[in-house]
From TrEMBL:
It comes from Linum tenue. Gene3D superfamilies: P-loop containing nucleotide triphosphate hydrolases. It comes from the Eukaryota. Keywords: ATP-binding, Helicase, Hydrolase, Nucleotide-binding. It holds the Pfam family UvrD-helicase. This is UvrD-like helicase ATP-binding domain-containing protein. Residues 235-618 form the UvrD-like helicase ATP-binding domain. InterPro entries: P-loop_NTPase, TRANK1, UvrD-like_ATP-bd. ATP binds at residues 256-263. GO terms for molecular function: ATP binding; helicase activity; hydrolase activity.
Length: 940
């Protein structure tokens, strides 16, 4: 309570002294290690949001005294204190006094008043943009002013409003929505074309993609402790849409296009639940005398994704978020940590093999889908792999261990995936059946429908009979004729026969077996409280249905996220509404908990939540991506879920369509300039990539550019992002070149004149059409990998390029030397190393090797080379055992040469060179004989 004082001035002085004392007390807490759980600023009035740029500049401040002074200022601002004598408003054109600057000795802290939505209220907050010398202030102000030009009048006026409690300035709140942007800006037209308003300056807009972090005890300690910020992820400020999903209490389906924050939302939700659980536990322990162990109180959360890179990223992200709140001392951890982690921590033999008695320290469990299945296999009854004599060769007690070397080698070499199906099965099938059928389409029908669909789940033997397949295809509006489907079913039968003969299996067999065992034995092991499944478009219905057994919290426990436009996994055909119906039919209804299938019940259980704001890239790229989505809607409405066009608040440079000046070997001349072919120096950087359709084109391009550029197939780039992307010869190498002609007709429907208007279009088989759908999805994935610049270079002209040109969403550019030079952004060794680590996580050893070579890291370069050879040996084991052994031998020697004894021993062991295997470090060999060197590296 305020003390009675003789004069008003006296009261203010006392209050001021009290507030200042609180500020000092808050800062005092950071003299020692933070308590970690303290939520700072209980008495603070303002939410302070720090930008990424501020964090970087702060780290560069030269003295700890200066750092404390800046933090002192931030704390004062958060308490509502404002300098009274100094002028703090920056007057500029659009920002109307919402921009302020505060002097701390010889630098200025630049901040603005903004509005963010929290728990239904729109609140004023302080955004700290940067800290800099006075001379740099005008540049930032100009950039911010350009951003504020996009804001609505109402928004700016509300930011300007002031409110006071005594001498303290306090934030204002409104319980109605405030439109953030002017309705006519590009930011809100999203995918719609506005030919006149493209900004060609992309760099100034990147401020709008900036992450902001709420000022907290963790962040203050982190800023003061001087660790470099790379190893800690603080929860950043989410968008309103993201917050709504994180706060949504029921099971739900999150649908959003690439870069719209799906993974972010899943991770934040998981993290928020961890925190709430932690707080609840602490309260419980404080109030009761119960001495329950952590093992009993653990919150069992499971995060699953197919993609090993994403899995690794999420794992890291979660542990760094945890560190940010636990205040662990990270300064001792070096940058090498990540590399060692791949190499050593993943080798760790203590990672659980099954769902029996998982130690609490392993939660939240972040797994790839395959690891999840293998753990289930080890959990229940007789292993699926016991039916294979080769797998049975391992000792019985080891067989229940998914890390057993023999078992791992078996799995690695005997699983039939699409690549194996097309290379080792397809060529040997009856040509009468395979003629005019695409292996890709056939594999998808087998894996997604005959063996992997919802009906197959209920069917005897786990697969559809011919009759069921034919009639089911009618119902799901298949593009295939009955005759084509009959042939596909015959191919399926032939494939199954050969597979059994070869002693091989596919993922669908494994999943069917798990389903049978789950049904018969039931699942009575670690039951999950919450399950998060990302990139769900990469799973078949039957694969998704496995999750119902490990979590019974159907009402609140499931969060699925995905995007059908990115469904390019070979063998998976997927729509979001199908998993929604799967969820009601198979998950919730099976539980008997909901009793009826009425629509109302469905709504109560869950809903599809959309994310539409893109955080990765700018509107220029999004318009191009949306044009591809529009085509999928038009030609293949059944293969995609409808979503509002994505929006981006950043209006960036239009993608560029490169044209050669003459007709000579285009890529060759391009690579000479662009990749410094002759100079042998690297100038295309670690944040730039050439994307190509397939391995064939990739090898061709790599042959020309060597180590001077990163080259990836579109399948390989899924889940990765780069500053700049060059899409090379996508249309020229298309297997359905003719089908793209369909676009001329489409252009006519849009009243876009095409030079081929008068053409008579051929009739294309439905099967070929389906391939076109796959092409469009590939194109979409390629476009959405870029953050800034997107260049298209094709050796042939395609109607798609015509469409883009006519719509004005690309700009034409002659490939002259000046432009080529502007494309190059060389990278530092550190940046190459960072990119190399990312490739290592996804076992892309070839690209990782290039990165480490460019980073001048010979140890890791050799490591990647050896791993690449070992992976090659695996692939060739059946097709060409001799070359396979040769590669394995080379790998063994390389591992040996860099002291990777255990890896070398494993290679020699596989080569049956036991003497050599024994020569290597024997202590680790014991481990390696029964435990695979790196479970994740080979079979994630
Ligand atoms: N509110 C936000 N503010 C700033 N950046 C954000 C925000 N939300 C997400 N991001 C960033 O946007 C990028 C894309 O986010 P995320 O990976 O979660 O999207 P996604 O929908 O899962 O993408 P994809 O489907 O391509 O994997 C990430 O770099 C993420 O950190």
């Amino acid at each position: 309570m305020r003390q009675v004082s003789t004069s008003k001035k006296g009261v203010i002085h006392e209050d001021l002294a009290r507030v200042l004392a609180q500020v000092e007390a808050e800062l005092d807490k950071f003299k020692d290690l933070p308590d970690g759980d303290t939520i700072l600023f209980e008495k603070a009035k303002w939410k302070i949001l720090l930008s990424e740029n501020f964090r970087t500049s702060f780290k560069k401040l030269d003295s700890s005294e200066m750092k404390k002074l800046v933090l002192n200022l931030l704390l004062r601002l958060s308490f509502g204190l404002r300098p009274r004598k100094r002028k703090i408003d920056i007057v500029c054109e659009n920002s109307k006094q919402i921009l302020k600057h505060f002097r701390v000795r010889d630098v200025y802290v630049l901040c603005s008043i903004d509005i963010v939505k929290d728990s239904g209220l729109c609140n004023q907050v302080l955004k700290i943009w940067d800290i800099m010398p006075l001379v740099d202030v005008p540049v930032l102000v100009k950039r911010l002013d350009a951003i504020y030009a996009l804001h609505s009048e109402e928004y700016l006026s509300r930011c300007k409003e002031k409110s006071f409690e005594g001498f303290l300035e306090v934030p204002k709140s409104w319980d109605c929505d405030v439109a953030h942007y002017k309705s006519t800006t590009n930011a809100e037209t999203g995918g719609h074309h506005r030919g006149d308003a493209f900004s060609e300056n992309y760099s100034s807009d990147s401020l709008m993609l900036m992450k902001f972090y709420s000022l907290s005890s963790g962040i203050i300690w982190h800023l003061l402790s001087g660790c470099d910020g790379q190893e800690v992820d603080f929860p950043f400020e989410l968008s309103d849409q993201e917050k709504e999903i994180v706060q949504f209490g029921k099971s739900s389906f999150v649908l959003g296009r690439s870069g719209s924050g799906k993974t972010t939302v899943l991770v934040m939700k998981l993290f928020q639940r961890e925190q709430l659980h932690h707080i609840a536990l602490r309260g419980y322990h404080e109030q009761s005398d119960a001495v329950e162990t952590d093992e009993q109180n653990v919150l069992k959360q499971l995060f699953v994704t197919v993609n090993p890179r994403l899995c690794h990223f999420v794992k890291q992200n979660i542990s760094r978020l945890k560190r940010s709140t636990c205040g662990w001392n990270l300064s001792a951890e070096s940058c090498e940590f990540d590399l060692e982690e791949i190499d050593e921590t993943f080798l760790s033999s203590d990672f659980p093999d099954s769902f029996v008695d998982i130690p609490s320290s392993f939660f939240p469990l972040v797994l790839t889908f395959k690891k999840f299945l293998l753990m289930l296999d080890c959990t229940m009854g007789v292993s699926f792999f016991d039916r294979f004599p080769e797998a049975r060769a391992c000792q019985p007690e080891k067989r229940k261990n998914s890390k057993s070397l023999t078992l791992q080698t078996f799995i690695r070499t005997r699983e039939v995936n699409y690549e194996k199906f097309s290379s080792s099965y397809w060529p040997y099938m009856n040509v009468k059946l395979t003629k005019r059928v695409e292996p890709f389409l056939c594999f998808t029908e087998i894996t997604s429908h005959i063996k992997g669909g919802l009906l197959a789940l209920e069917a005897a033997g786990g697969h559809l009979s011919r009759e069921d397949y034919l009639s089911h295809s009618e119902r799901r509006l298949s593009y295939l004729t009955e005759q084509e489907r009959c042939r596909i079913y015959d191919i399926y039968l032939e494939y199954e026969k050969s597979k059994v003969k070869n002693g091989e299996f596919d993922l669908a067999d494994f999943v069917s077996d798990i389903h049978v065992r789950l049904r018969v034995e039931g699942y009575n092991f670690a039951e999950m409280d919450f399950v998060y499944i990302d990139e769900i478009q990469d799973l078949t219905m039957k694969q998704i249905a496995v999750f119902k057994h490990v979590c019974r919290n159907y009402e609140e426990g499931f969060l699925f996220a995905g995007d059908t436009a990115q469904a390019i996994s070979k063998g998976v055909e997927f729509r979001f509404k199908d998993i929604r119906s799967l969820f009601y039919k198979t998950f919730a209804m099976d539980s008997g908990r909901f009793g009826s299938t009425s629509t109302n019940t469905k709504r109560e259980i869950s809903d599809v939540l959309h994310l539409s704001q893109n955080f990765r890239t700018h509107a220029g790229v999004l318009r191009l991506a949306q044009s591809v989505i529009d085509l999928i809607y038009h030609f293949f409405p059944n293969s995609i879920d409808e979503l509002n066009p994505e929006t981006s608040h950043v209006n960036g440079v239009r993608p560029v369509l490169l044209k050669s000046v003459d007709n000579r070997s285009v890529f060759k001349s391009m690579s000479e300039v662009l990749f410094a072919g002759q100079k042998k120096s690297v100038e295309f950087g670690a944040e730039q990539v050439v994307l190509v359709r397939n391995e064939e084109v990739k090898n061709d391009v790599l042959g020309q550019v060597g180590c001077c550029a990163l080259v990836l197939t579109i399948l390989e780039c899924k889940g990765l992002e780069f500053e700049d992307v060059l899409l090379y010869n996508f249309f020229g190498s298309s297997p359905v070149v003719d089908q793209w002609e369909l676009l001329h007709g489409y252009m006519r429907t849009l009243n876009i004149s095409s030079p081929h208007d008068e053409c008579h279009f051929r009739h294309f088989s439905d099967e070929k059409l389906k391939l076109l759908c796959h092409e469009l999805k590939l194109l979409y994935v390629a476009i959405t990998r870029t953050r800034q610049r997107f260049w298209i270079f094709d050796e042939s002209w395609s109607p798609m390029l015509e469409l883009w040109k006519c719509k004005g969403i690309v700009q034409l550019q002659h490939l002259d030397n000046e432009f080529l030079a502007s494309m190059r952004v060389p990278s530092t060794p550190e940046a190459w190393k960072k990119r190399g680590r990312k490739f290592l996580h996804v076992q892309n050893y070839e690209m990782a090797r290039i990165c480490f070579k460019n980073a001048a890291e010979p140890y890791w370069e050799t490591y990647c080379q050896a791993s690449e050879l070992r992976a090659k040996a695996d692939r060739l084991r059946i097709l060409n055992p001799q070359i396979s052994q040769h590669h394995l031998f080379e790998a063994a020697e390389l591992f040996d040469s860099i002291g990777k004894d255990e890896s070398a021993a494993q290679c020699y062991f596989e080569l049956e060179e036991y003497k050599k295997a024994g020569r290597t470090n024997f202590s680790s060999l014991n481990l390696s004989l029964c435990i695979i060197h790196d479970f994740h590296l080979f079979y994630p």
